[in-house]
Amino acid sequence: MTAVTDVPVSHQDPAQIADTTRRRPRPSGWGLALATVLVIELVIFSTTNRNFFGGGFGMLSQIDLFIPTALVAIGLAMVVLTGDIDLSVGATASLSSVVVGRVILSSGNVLLAIVVAVAVGALIGLINGVLVAYLRLDSLLVTLAMQFAVSSFAQAFAGTNPPQGFPVGFQAIGRGSMANIPSALLLFLVVGLIVMFVVGKTRFGRRTVLIGYNMSASRYSGLPVRRTRLGLFVACAAIASIGGVLLSAYYNAGRPQAGMSVLMPALTCVVLGGVDVFGGKGRIGDVIIAALLLGFLTQGLLNSGVSSLAATMVTGLLLVVALIVKTISEKKSIGWLAGRLGQRFTQVGKRR
To answer: What share of the chain is helix, strand, coil (3-state, %, to 5)?
Structure first.
């Protein structure tokens, strides 16, 4: 019997491909490996640094520092699952950080400010989605250009006197806690669970993975490819905006460059979480674990007296090692990678 991947694109059966996207009773081996490493690093840092552990509350108090990055990673993973990418998420978070501050100071309404900031982010995602999905421009080039445009607008909107000095209730979103659990962590878990459910248990999520697995087959099978990709870009940007809101709440100021530093760590979380950068494979749950792993690793190293430059270097080395281990465990080779790169460029050419 001919394998699914050997069937011409126009005759592939989406039902067969969809088997890879349906619920799985057991967690992934890669996710278990990441969780094991996370536990090991928490034990090591807790036993070697009392400030890191702090009776358990020390670890929780440090979560606020990397939750915005983790949020951006969740939204970015949804786009990467289709084989696209969004390099403008950091700039979107920066703009939302400024917008929420301006609206709070002008209206005094925190809820309205958050809604406006998220709506602005969703608008950026809408523009990205239209350009990529409907005009068939390459997502890398579109979002790179959008990154520069949005970042410049955030700087101009912030002006020489960026907004600062927000109500205590708003600051509690980024620094507060409920029952000793950081409110930022609770927000992160809520968003993470929602995205996990959407990607793993809904028809929209199955379409997302199918598109990344084979966009041409999805299109010929009648799936709403353009609409799905558009929705993913909007969702990704909206989640990035929530990260920007958390940045403003944590720093008590709208910082037009605050989100730019989260792009590469967020992308690292996505890759370390096992999401295939070519699309079609990955789990949001593993990305969440990877985000916690990288976040605690960075904070643990900094608390141990390691410089930020050295901590960044260690994080990069960890990613390289993880990619090598994952590639070996999946019995892939350089030839496989070359084939996927060729497939990627072929798809880009067809979109144009």
So the answer is: 75, 0, 20
Whole-angstrom distance, CA of residue 87 vs CA of residue 343: 21
44 in any annotated domain:
no
| Number of structural domains the chain divides into | 1
Q: pTM for the complete prediction?
A: 0.85
Alpha carbon distance 273, 73 (integer Å): 10
User: What are 35's two structure tokens?
Assistant: 């969780």
Q: What is the pLDDT of residues 212-234, one digit of tens each?
A: 999 988 889 889 999 999 999 99
Contact 64, 117 (CB under 8 A): no
The answer to the question of residue 300 being in a domain is: yes
CATH number of the domain enclosing 269: 1.10.3470
Nearest-angstrom CA–CA distance, 46 and 304: 11
Chain-centre distance for alpha carbon 141: 19
Q: Which two tokens stand for residue 211?
A: 């598109």
